[in-house]
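Design request, tokens follow.
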């Protein structure tokens, strides 16, 4: 068994990565210390908060102080190198500080998006054996603190529950009393995380299989983040990095937390998915760059067209997470006066490709971009250029290990360091050294409100437990006005209702955002000769405006 502390990359490869500057001998803690020394009163976070109806402008000095105090609180809990500290908090600047505090004590941070509910939270904590979990009392109509208290007896490794808000209701430790309202601690005896040491575990969506924990180091994150920033930051500008992505996901940290520590700028984000609020916040912050998803960007375009704002500092808009619809590309340029640049990445590689400034106008309608410097990309096909094939990657931004099932099952093979990692996506070359995703990524179902994928396989496996479900596929499709999570069912007896299916998921404790909102029936699911499900045929059948396919609908 490989432990978290023992994980490492082949020394020759690590030396190779360092020789190109993709890896380094320092961490994001050193970047923070440098900015505290040189620009202590400059903003590091500009955080829109509905919790207190305010915009909080946080300086580097204030941020560093909270990082140190939280680190002191974790030290009081006995957190040491390799221990996992989980947190499920909204998009607040304190969430980012907690992430850095984990690095300060040598712990492995486990961020969990706040939209997940009891079933998924318990699974995530059980798989990593988290020693500490920090959560909010209530958020989005859900009692996070009570859910954590109820499951704690089934999590033998969980020693400490910390609650932001009403901690007394569940007998938890109060966030502010333990982490904030305390003297500055002496951290001289602590060992901060090393650049090659696992420092973050993130779970994949499970959209194409069982969710797995992905282990990153400061250096794997640096390799992706620094490469992307070279494309998105202009040296002469004051960097203000806005995003709709979650602080507890991979995209926001690389863009608006770790990314701004590298640039000396400020992250701009808010705790609700509200396009009007974000655009107003971007005006106030004088945002220079924006990272978002295609669905959220569509909403931002509509809000900007309804009430135009002046955003003279904005020079870069990037979109990832899902394939960018071609018609969105000119809409962004016309609305914001800035070209839309598509990016592609996955949890395992932080970020992989990006459309460049020297690509043709509206190139994001045709491409997901060229590889960033620290990653090699290839389309494995026996045919020539332009043919589709399996998208494979390897390089310095790849994760160093994965957790399958539990912390006792850490794998370091097939992670893309030396060997090629099969992403599971189908792509083709774009004729300019880049790629265009063509398949399977479309089989993923995306929830706009939390900027994460729905774990399709997990939902399907639960629905198969219903006595009237013989076979099922979860797809994303449109009714002509909005995207829906559609369950396509082969009945095994009586035809179940949508409420029947959702009642089953509710009893299993599944996150409500994962519930299907539409139900369709077919005689059988379309599969290829090898038995692989052809979901694109289902989308063609049930998407409004699509040409009908040969699927046998009822």
């Amino acid at each position: 068994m490989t432990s978290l502390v023992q994980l490492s990359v082949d020394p020759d490869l690590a030396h190779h990565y360092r020789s190109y500057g993709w890896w380094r001998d320092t961490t994001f803690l050193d970047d923070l210390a440098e900015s505290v020394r040189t620009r202590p009163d400059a903003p590091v976070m500009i955080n829109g908060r509905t919790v207190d109806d305010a915009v909080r402008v946080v300086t580097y000095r204030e941020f560093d102080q909270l990082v140190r105090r939280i680190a002191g609180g974790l030290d009081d809990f006995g957190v040491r190198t390799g221990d996992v500290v989980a947190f499920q908090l909204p998009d607040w600047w304190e969430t980012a500080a907690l992430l850095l505090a984990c690095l300060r004590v040598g712990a492995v941070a486990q961020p969990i998006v706040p939209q997940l509910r009891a079933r998924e939270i318990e699974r995530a904590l059980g798989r990593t054996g988290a020693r500490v979990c920090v959560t909010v009392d209530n958020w989005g109509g859900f009692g996070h603190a009570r859910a954590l208290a109820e499951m704690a007896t089934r999590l033998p490794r969980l020693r400490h529950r910390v609650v932001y808000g009403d901690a007394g209701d569940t007998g938890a430790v109060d966030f502010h009393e333990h982490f904030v309202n305390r003297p500055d601690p002496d951290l001289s005896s602590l060992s901060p995380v090393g650049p090659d040491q696992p420092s973050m575990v993130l779970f994949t969506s499970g959209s194409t299989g069982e969710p797995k924990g992905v282990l990153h180091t400061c250096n794997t994150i640096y390799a992706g983040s620094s490469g992307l920033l070279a494309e998105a930051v202009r040296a002469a500008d004051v960097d203000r990095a806005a995003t709709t992505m979650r602080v507890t996901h991979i995209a926001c940290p690389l863009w608006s937390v770790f990314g701004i520590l590298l640039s000396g700028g400020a992250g701009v984000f808010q705790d609700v998915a509200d396009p009007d609020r974000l655009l107003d916040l971007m005006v106030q912050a004088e945002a220079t760059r924006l990272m978002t998803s295609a669905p959220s960007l569509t909403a931002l375009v509509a809000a900007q067209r309804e009430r135009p704002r002046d955003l003279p500092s904005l020079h870069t808009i990037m979109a990832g997470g899902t394939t960018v619809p071609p018609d969105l590309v000119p809409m962004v340029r016309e609305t914001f006066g800035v070209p839309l640049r598509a990016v592609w990445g996955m949890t395992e590689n932080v970020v992989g490709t990006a459309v460049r400034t020297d690509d043709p106008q509206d190139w994001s309608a045709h491409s997901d971009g060229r590889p960033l410097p620290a990653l090699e990309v290839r389309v494995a096909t026996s045919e020539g250029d332009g043919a589709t094939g399996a998208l494979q990657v390897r390089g310095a931004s790849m994760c160093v290990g994965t957790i399958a099932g539990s912390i006792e099952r850490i794998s370091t093979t097939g992670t893309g360091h030396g060997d090629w990692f099969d992403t599971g996506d189908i792509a083709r070359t774009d004729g300019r050294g880049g790629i265009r995703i063509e398949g399977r990524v479309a089989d993923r179902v995306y929830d706009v409100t939390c900027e994460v994928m729905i774990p399709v396989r997990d939902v399907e496996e639960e629905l198969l437990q219903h006595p009237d479900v013989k076979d099922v596929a979860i797809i994303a499709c449109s009714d002509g006005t909005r995207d829906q999570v559609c369950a396509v069912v082969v009945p095994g007896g009586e035809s179940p209702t949508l409420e029947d299916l959702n009642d089953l998921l509710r009893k299993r404790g599944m996150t409500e955002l994962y519930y299907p909102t539409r139900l369709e029936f077919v005689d059988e699911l379309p599969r290829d000769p090898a038995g692989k499900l052809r979901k694109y045929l289902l989308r063609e059948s049930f998407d409004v405006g699509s040409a009908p396919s040969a699927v046998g609908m009822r």
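Comment from the thread starter after seeing the answer: thanks! The radius of gyration is 23 Å.
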